[in-house]
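User: Hi! Is it possible to get a structure for several chains at once, not just one? Here's what I have:
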Amino acid sequence: MISQLTSPRLLRSLLPAFSLTVILLAIFYLQPRAMSYFGLNLLLNLALPIAFATLAQMCVITVNDLDLGIGAFVGFVACVGVTWLNDQPLLGFLVLAASILAYGAMGALIHLRNLPSIVVTLGMSFVWLGLALLVLPTPGGKAPAIVTAVMKFKTPFVPMTIYASIAIALIVHVALKRSAYGAVLRGVGGNPQSVARASWSLVRAKITMYALAGFFGVMSGISLIGLTSAADANIALRYTLLSIAGVILGGGEFVGGRISPIGAVLGAITLTLAGSFLSFLRISPDWQIGAQGAILIIVLALRTVINRSEARKLA
Amino acid sequence: MNDMSRPIVKLNSVEKNFGAVRALDGVDLDILPGECLGLVGHNGAGKSTLMNILAGIQTPTSGILDFGDGGTSTNHNVSEARRQGIRCVFQELSLCPNLTVTENARIQHPGIKGWNWRARARELILGHLDEIFPNHGISADDLVGDLSIAKRQMVEIARAFSIVDSDIRLVILDEPTSSLDATIADQLMAHVRRFTGAGGSCVLISHLLEEILTTSDRIIVMRDGDVVDSRPAQDFSRQTLVETMGSVAKDLHEFDQNTDSKRSEETPYLSIYPTEAHRGISLNAHKGEIVGLAGLSGHGQTDTLVRIYDRRKQYGIEMAFVAGDRQSDGVFPLWTIGQNISISSIRNLLNLGLLDLKREHELAEEWRDKIAIRTPDVNHNILSLSGGNQQKALFARAFGSPADTILMDDPMRGVDIGTKQEVYEMIRAEAATGRTFIWYTTEMDELKHCDHVYVFRNGQIAADLSSQELTEQKVLHASFEEAS
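Assistant: Yes, the chains can be modeled jointly so their relative placement is included. Here is the combined structure:
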């Protein structure tokens, strides 16, 4: 029993929760007033859109690809959200649905033509950015009232973001880690040849994961405008790197289909909090990006230590 | 089961070509119900290709697969093979390392789904593991990537024998015991007997001839893409099997006249043990010698070449490496032919620290003419060449470099016969100028160009043959395990 509790596999899966707890405790220590409904709401305000973007990135990483266009895509969704979705809801809805299909088609193209995903998604990021500028040339617009109402809804005990994060983390966990088809989807990342030899369609799996990424990208953009109520084409460009960092911080790996949806959501929240934590430490914004990088390096170093101890155990 | 005398699959003059290479040359084969069919043959005999065709992974260039039940299939594919109840345990493991044992069982069986799929998959795989390998010590929730190679192999085998929705009629085992210890291998062979006793069929490929002789009902021997013999197992002995695998009239002494041994000098130019443990016979190379590494593929030849290359500083010898797997570690696909040739010689082409483009071009032109790379212009992309000419460019890269020793990792894979002859001549000419070659080859014919041959088995050298002693029989005997 004890050996099970100290097994590297368990330690590894607890690492994201551990990093989040440490950073949360540090914030509460520095700023006890943050330990309130209002304080948590402020701290976690932007966590939900980042969590969605991270899940989108995780879907693509599951099948051994990388999405360098997710930030621009979220920006595009935000621009559609504050214009068409508000003025002509049906048109807006159709455009968003079509963009999810476009994501799925991108997955099919990458797989069938055997293209590097980095190149295709980076190219697409400029397409999304251009489309966003066409839809909304100058910052502005107005988010649909219902989206704003949902995002600003006051839930009992703790802020809405916490309930929503738990809910989406559990739903995606069940879909990818517990369901029967989820095993096949992760298998594509682990050993595509073996999955194909069991007569599964690889292209179907890729389309599924890319379309899911598109869906989470849309959710990210919509939840973002619910908070900001206006948008701008460049609003979410930094999400691309944040989402990759979130997946890795959450215990995912770039190749091999090793991912954790719960970890990814925790990773996204940790990254959101890291910014506030550094402000509380009165670190000048000039140094914040570097300090965020340092946090990432510390967590990854911890993971390497755990992996090494595991390798030693096997040897 | 159905009629015991009707074959479950009948292959009718099945042929398979890979470009210019003929892998299967019109194979006729029946597999009967309740039969364990042993399949032996040396490298490149066509065993794996034949099994891949049965499993639906490759489609034959021509020929017919007849499954008896009217299911004559010309475009046999993976799902069709599964429908016919054919399963395969591949030599290279085909499990997903990031998934648990249970989840891997699920991937094999699309039929396991719905709410309690996890419980059913767990029961299925554990049931078969318990049946085949009692006391296996594997938990259904273990990640496959965390298991040892032997345990992975056990999971893979148990998975292949597990039944969900369709019956299993034929299980193909390609070198299933290569990573199992003797006790577990015996458990597997006992299970194969039980399985065939109950009316199922097995094809067993193994380099352990004892295993084949004791487990199979019938043994077929393949050579050069064809079935050359098929007899009940008791009609074969170790000796006759090895003899049948070799070709009868092949003479490996074509160049005997000019191979006055270069081994007269007392100290070898280069000497290495294939294992860290320094056990067994060491590999020695003398200056100007062509040393051949033989044996079944995957028995440590490539690893030894890499070990030699890694120690080039220690030996103080300049070395060049000719890769066999052109796509993954040979050509730079975005570069021109000339750049691909000159990359190993760049240190000699510098002018004040910068690359002298004129000399680079001259080097490429020189080698294009010497080795006859068929291209109008060395500035064309390397991929504009045929496979054989790409390989020539890789030889030019090694020959054009200042290296004294050239390591070759089965470089003639998929190369046409004309190109081969030209390259053999180049190698002999270069060796005459004092260059040393260490040449891993899977083709018996190429060994006759070597001055000295080491036969590998299980990561060690099993035989040390000079060109005078070299015969195909000796190589085959050393490649296959001695009776223990």
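Chain A has a mean pLDDT of 91. The interface with chain B takes residues 9, 178, 180-181, 183-184, 186-187, 189-191, 193-200, 256-258, 310, 314 of chain A (CB under 8 Å).

User: Great, thank you!
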